[in-house]
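Hi W., the arginine complex you wanted:
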Amino acid sequence: MCCIHYSAPRECLSGLIKSILLDGIEAPCMPRKRVVVDFSSPNIAKEMHVGHLRSTIIGESICRLLEFFKHNVLRINHVGDWGTQFGMLIAHLQDKFPDYTSNTPSISDLQAFYKESKARFDSEEDFKARAYQCVVKLQQGNKDFINAWQAICDVSRKEFQVIYDRLGVTLIERGESFYQERMVTIVEELTKKNLLEEDDGRKIMWSSENPGEDRGVPLTVVKSDGGFTYDTSDMATIRQRIEEEEADWLIYVTDAGQALHFQLIFACAERMGILNRDMIRVDHVGFGVVLGEDGKKFKTRSGDTVKLVMLLDEGLQRSMAKLVEKGRHEQLTPEELKTAQEAVTYGCIKYADLSHNRVSDYVFSFNQMLDDKGNTAVYLLYAYTRIKSIARNCAEHFKTTRDLIASTMITLDHEKEWNLTKVLLRFGDVLIKLSKDFLLNHLCDYTYEIATSFADFYDKCYCIEKNKAGEIIKINHSRILLTEATARVLEKCFYILGLNPVEKM
Ligand SMILES: NC(=[NH2+])NCCC[C@H](N)C(=O)O
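Structure:
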């Protein structure tokens, strides 16, 4: 279904529906690009919070979309694994787990460990001094300190991986530490090009040349203690991704609060001559804050940040309760029930996020996302199972083999058949728009429109006629094929949105 158009005459459209079934669905043709997508990117030893969850969900969908367009995508997890906080973490590790080189430290709660070391850093002078020495030794690449740092990163890494596995997200970890050498080079070159200015011991860079005009805020490239910053590492990511990864498209998925940071980074990278926006596309894909049902920043009752694992567990419990309420546990096998539970939980969390305009803040509400009416993942998952059950019902009478597809004339005489077809064939246009603005809520709306148009169609158009005994007496082959094509388009939408379709629920 490459490059189709839905304004074609009806006969043509029925041919296009057939081609969905015979050739599968492909994205519209587009020049192939090498894209680096930087998403998720939590910070080691700090909590991975709902903001990172948003970045993870949105980033994964963007990658799936771009891969569907056959772009060559590199998925990067730019974890915060470098910086002065590691000094105090290492110093604390040395005290609490002196045998860390031979035994993996059993830090069950890294956030608590972080808090402890921070408290010591703020109150014990000796400790503070030692923490500073640890940073220096770490940055010099001292083996012992690198080992300690690795041990700490490993604890976080395992925690992050649990979340990624549960959500079906894949990415490659390449944290800030990876850029250490490259940051040194960036600073050397900026110095050579005379682009750095001294400011109170810091080295800063402005994004525009003209000192006369209002230049906004500058980047801090080197701190007064000689250390690098978040700005320095992002200048290095731009260059590394363009020069070493040969990317021609860079995407950064973070909260909207970092929009200015990326504007400055892109402008400074152009000024430095490592980025040419006529050749390379750069996007900062920003998103709003996650709010609780009380409209305030999403927190637990006690005011702590919500642990993601606990959030996912709560989702599992609640969706199981819903399934049981509907009596599904009596109809499904234990495996089917578990598959449904996971599809509902993770599907709902992702869909609730994606179906809101990403730029706005959004209210996290299990009640709303687990509702089976309206534009929710549950509604869509049920719609899909219904469609699949139609095919299952007549499986003995009618097999959708290639021969049958080829020999069946798909008639689109009924208004509802026609309407559904037009919706299905809009898929390519929806994707093209998405590749420009990454507003995945439009894909959600579109998916919902497929489900509702299908419900309208199914309501008015018999696919199967049964006699009083419940035996099938007549099958409308054309409509079954249209049903099957609907399932295929829905599956693609689900895939991009990260929903796992289930046959029974
Ligand atoms: N290249 C980047 N700056 N990627 C995003 C990093 C996000 C950062 N670690 C945070 O928690 O906000």
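The chain has a mean pLDDT of 92.

W.
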